[in-house]
């Protein structure tokens, strides 16, 4: 499921480059592509519109978290919105009602209703140790009744005895009372399907609902029907107020549009997905995992979430090693500057270092340092390897050469060298346990 959508989005996000806050143009360009990708995935138009609007609002001008690229930030936003559209939390079948708990299965003929009834029954029996009674209410198709009977035999679940010439409502009543007297935990009613929705079907379903008072009404929908599935879900929901949706044939659905539309269109959770014909091919629907799968980028999402903390911790460790050895040349300074720039400033790095959290508060706000870091890095890059290793070599003529190489004033070179010297001194102090004077170092 979702392979094509995932591919498309991957290409879009890799195209967003640049740094800093997300520009309106970046976001709009990405959203155009996202919109196209969703439409190609057969997501309903109104869902596409609502979705892209939401993402747009959150993305334009969004502060890009330190140490992640804007493209990654957009992925995170799209991911979060996908999770919201798909329903946030997983929504398992509830059995929180007096036994026998009635579960009503509704949906069109061929949607996989009977198969899904069997799958759920097997799962309740095997995983939760429940005693389940199955009943087919499909009075028009004797074959359907036989199918459920055979299925019950296969999975070792009891099926209500077939009595000819009873109406669906009569069978429902009989199923409930049999389940009660038989001491069953759950009674599942597999209603008749049609090839399309009609008033008769809806009226019958509503009447069955009235007499059986189901705790769950699960609408079974073939995900391959795409847009039609949305209209179907709406009609059923308006009429019988379903409690959840089971999407079937998700194993054959590379686009996945139905899943995205369904929840948004009905507000009802997708509880389970059918992923094959076998009786155990049933999975819980986890919005977050599905969103990960759609984007094919779960790693990036967690990276964005943990970016600052993880990266800085790692770098702080490296720095601590340097401190211990008492070494700190201009290459190290450059490395530090690059890190700081990446992480949005000295403050975030210092927060990770033991004893420096309080001092970090006094430093200038993060990204204002970006340009300064760039200039300082350029200065160091204009030095030879020897000069970087031995800053003492930097006499007046060398400083002049470096200044013109980096396109800055000599005074900036002097400042940088002074900063390095202070920093190296400070390093020594820090490694001995103190940490004085650091805050003054990044004055400008
Ligand atoms: P019903 O008319 O709604 O009761 O549909 P059935 O349960 O008879 O299913 C129709 C066909 O769909 C059967 O051949 C099932 O094996 C198949 N089917 C049901 N669910 C799935 C699924 O999740 N994946 C696949 N690949 N096939 C399924």
> What name does the CATH topology of the largest domain carry?
Rossmann fold
Order of helices and strands: HHHHEHEHEHEHEHEHEEHHHHHHHHH
The percent range for strand residues is 5-15%
Q: Which ranges are low-confidence, i.e. pLDDT below 50, for 5 or more consecutive residues?
A: 297-311, 349-362, 433-444
Measured between the Cα atoms of the first and last residue, the distance is 53 Å
Mean pLDDT: 78
Structural class: alpha/beta
Spatial order of the strands forming the largest sheet = 3-2-4-1-5-6-7-8
Residue share in helix: 55-70%
Number of strands: 8
Radius of gyration: 32 Å
Second CATH tier, the architecture of the largest domain: 3-Layer(aba) Sandwich
CATH class of the largest domain: Alpha Beta
- Major β-sheet, in short? 8 strands, mixed
Give the CATH H-level superfamily of the largest domain. Answer: P-loop containing nucleotide triphosphate hydrolases
Which outline best applies? elongated
How many discrete structural domains?
A: 3
Number of helices: 19
Bound molecules: guanosine-5'-diphosphate
What does this entry look like structurally?
With 444 residues, the chain is α/β, with parallel strands linked by helices. It has three domains: 3-88, SRP54, nucleotide-binding domain (Four Helix Bundle (Hemerythrin (Met), subunit A)), CATH 1.20.120.140; 101-285, Rossmann fold (3-Layer(aba) Sandwich); 300-442, 434 Repressor (Amino-terminal Domain) (Orthogonal Bundle), CATH 1.10.260.30. It is built from 19 helices and eight strands. The protein has helices at residues 3-14, 24-40, 45-59, 70-86, 113-128, 142-155, 168-181, 199-212, 227-240, 257-266, 287-295, 298-325, 330-343, 346-351, 357-360, 370-381, 385-389, 396-406, 410-432; strands spanning 101-107, 132-136, 158-159, 186-190, 216-222, 244-248, 270-274, 282-284. The chain has an eight-stranded mixed beta sheet with strand order 3-2-4-1-5-6-7-8, with helices on both faces. α10 (257-266) links the parallel β6 (244-248) and β7 (270-274). α1 (3-14) runs antiparallel to α2 (24-40). The longest helix is centred in the C-terminal third of the chain and has 28 residues, at 298-325. It is elongated. The two termini are 53 Å apart. Mean pLDDT is 78; it is low at 297-311, 349-362 and 433-444. Guanosine-5'-diphosphate binds at residues 107, 109-115, 193, 248-249, 251-252, 274-277, 281.
């Amino acid at each position: 499921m979702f392979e094509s959508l995932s591919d498309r989005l991957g290409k879009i996000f890799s195209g967003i480059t640049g740094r800093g806050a997300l520009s309106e143009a970046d976001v709009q360009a990405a959203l155009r592509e996202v919109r196209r990708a969703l439409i190609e995935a057969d997501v309903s138009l109104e869902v596409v519109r609502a979705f892209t609007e939401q993402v747009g609002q959150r993305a334009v001008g969004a502060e890009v978290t330190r140490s992640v690229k804007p493209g990654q930030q957009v992925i995170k936003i799209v991911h979060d919105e996908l999770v919201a559209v798909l329903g946030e939390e997983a929504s398992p079948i509830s059995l929180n009602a007096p036994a026998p708990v009635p579960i009503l299965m509704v949906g069109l003929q061929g949607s996989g209703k009977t198969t899904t009834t069997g799958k759920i029954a097997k799962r309740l029996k095997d995983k939760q140790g429940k005693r389940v009674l199955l009943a087919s209410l499909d009075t028009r198709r004797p074959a359907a009744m036989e199918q459920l009977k055979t299925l019950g035999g296969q999975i070792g679940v009891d099926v209500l005895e077939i009595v000819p010439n009873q109406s669906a409502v009569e069978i429902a009543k009989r199923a409930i009372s049999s389940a009660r007297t038989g001491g069953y935990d759950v009674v599942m009613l597999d209603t008749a399907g049609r090839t399309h929705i009609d008033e008769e079907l809806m009226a019958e379903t509503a009447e069955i609902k009235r007499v059986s008072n189901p705790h769950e009404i699960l609408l079974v929908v073939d995900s391959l029907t795409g847009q039609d599935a949305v209209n179907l879900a709406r009609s059923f929901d308006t009429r019988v107020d379903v409690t959840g949706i089971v999407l079937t044939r998700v194993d054959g659905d590379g686009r996945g549009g139905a899943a995205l539309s369904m929840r948004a269109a009905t507000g009802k959770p997708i509880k389970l997905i059918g992923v094959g014909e076998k009786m155990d091919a049933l999975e819980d629907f986890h919005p977050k995992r599905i969103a990960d799968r759609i984007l094919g980028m779960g790693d990036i999402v967690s990276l964005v979430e943990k970016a600052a903390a993880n990266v800085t911790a790692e770098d702080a460790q490296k720095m601590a090693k340097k401190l211990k050895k008492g070494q700190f040349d201009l290459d190290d300074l450059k490395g530090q500057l690059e890190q700081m720039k990446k992480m949005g400033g000295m403050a975030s790095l210092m927060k990770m270092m033991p004893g420096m959290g309080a001092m970090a508060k006094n430093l200038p706000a993060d990204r204002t340092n970006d340009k300064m870091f760039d200039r300082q890095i350029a200065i160091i890059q204009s030095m030879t390897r020897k000069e970087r290793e031995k800053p003492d070599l930097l006499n007046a003529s060398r400083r002049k050469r470096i200044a013109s190489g980096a396109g800055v004033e000599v005074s900036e070179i002097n400042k940088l060298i002074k900063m390095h010297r202070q920093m190296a001194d400070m390093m020594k102090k820090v490694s001995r346990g103190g940490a004085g004077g650091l805050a003054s170092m990044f004055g400008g």
